[in-house]
């Protein structure tokens, strides 16, 4: 592979021998790169550095053997557009909806500097909409066809500091209840909050299909999840050299509890780390996973695909 500008999108990998689904991505809507509220100017960039349009995403997915993607809308400005995107592309794009854990405190008027040093200011939609109303909108939209999950919700101890904790836990609990009410799978964002996520799930009772999206725990956490029948959804981070713990966690999950995702536009799998990510690139992670498990690629892809159907019914 020729070394390219870090803005360049990954090459479309060779087509997988069996179709898979990107279980968690962020397609361009609202605030996402290339979406309607993304105001950056990409016009000076060469073609392979332009954020793909939705049509281009779909064409590249097709070429890579990625038959569908679940796009997560998890901020107020992205909710309706994500649901609409799914409605416009039946069978190819599905939606997961929630108020992101780092958005939850903002809807409660709590804007603080996170442990990561980033300041979190209030946008107009935070001021105008309480947490209850925001989750209410998720609840309304989640009944639309094409919306197949509640997510991403959960806990984030990296971005949200002490003052926001209670709001984050409250939001997580509201989403757990909503997933159960609508009988939808739950996609959990767990950043440096493994124990607390497990504690809240067990206290409230986890939805029947519970997924730790972009799994970031170790082998012990994987065993805890497995005991409860919770899924580990793995993205590009498992391909990074330093993440040996994550590979051990991946191997600690039984085959039937592993899912595949990108969490694009970030966390691009090797050999494209540092470049923008996109749904089609989950094919790199599928290959990596098959090799790591020491199984045939076609069998592994079929397994991942069957697991996706089991959880999301797609
Ligand atoms: Zn995500």
Question: Ligands in the structure?
Answer: zinc ion
Q: Give me the CATH architecture, please.
A: Alpha-Beta Barrel
Q: Quickly count the helices.
A: 11
Tally of discrete structural domains: 1
Radius of gyration: 18 Å
CATH topology: TIM Barrel
Q: Estimate the global geometry from the Cα principal axes.
A: globular
Task: State the end-to-end distance.
Answer: 34 Å
CATH superfamily: Metal-dependent hydrolases
Class of secondary structure makeup: alpha/beta
How many strands? 8
- Helix share, percent: 25-40%
Report the biggest beta sheet as strand number plus sense, adding barrel if it closes: 8 strands, parallel
Unreliable sequence segments: none
Q: What's the CATH class, please?
A: Alpha Beta
How would you write the strand order of the largest sheet? 1-2-3-4-5-6-7-8
Q: Tell me the series of helices and strands, N- to C-terminal.
A: EHEHEHHHEHEHEHEHEHH
**Average predicted confidence as pLDDT:** 93
What is the beta-strand fraction?
5-15%
């Amino acid at each position: 592979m020729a070394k390219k500008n870090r803005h360049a999108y990954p090459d479309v990998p060779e087509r997988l021998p069996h179709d898979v689904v990107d279980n968690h991505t962020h397609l361009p809507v609202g605030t996402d790169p290339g979406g309607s509220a993304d105001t950056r100017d990409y016009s000076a960039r060469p073609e392979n550095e332009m954020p793909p349009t939705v049509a281009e995403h779909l064409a590249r997915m097709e070429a890579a053997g990625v038959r569908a993607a679940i796009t997560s809308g998890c901020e107020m400005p992205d909710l309706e557009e994500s649901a609409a995107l799914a409605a416009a592309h039946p069978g190819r794009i599905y939606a997961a909806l929630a108020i992101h854990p780092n958005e939850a405190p903002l809807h409660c008027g709590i804007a603080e500097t996170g442990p990561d040093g980033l300041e979190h200011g209030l946008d107009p939609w935070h001021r105008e909409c309480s947490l209850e109303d925001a989750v209410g909108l998720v609840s309304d939209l989640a009944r639309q066809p094409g919306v197949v999950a509640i997510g991403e919700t959960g806990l984030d101890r990296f971005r949200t500091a002490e003052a926001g904790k209670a709001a984050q836990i409250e939001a997580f609990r509201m989403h757990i209840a909503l997933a159960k009410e609508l009988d939808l799978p739950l996609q959990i964002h767990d950043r440096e909050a493994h124990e607390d996520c497990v504690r809240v799930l067990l206290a409230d009772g986890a939805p029947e299909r519970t997924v730790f999206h972009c799994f970031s725990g170790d082998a012990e956490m994987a065993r805890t999840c497995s005991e409860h029948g919770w899924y580990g959804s793995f993205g590009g981070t498992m391909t990074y050299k330093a993440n040996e713990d994550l590979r051990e966690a991946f191997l600690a999950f039984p085959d039937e509890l592993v899912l595949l995702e990108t969490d694009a536009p970030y966390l691009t799998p090797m050999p494209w780390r540092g470049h923008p990510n996109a749904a089609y690139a989950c094919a790199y992670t599928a290959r990596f996973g098959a090799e790591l498990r020491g199984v045939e690629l076609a069998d592994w892809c079929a397994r991942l695909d069957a697991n996706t159907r089991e959880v999301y019914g797609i």
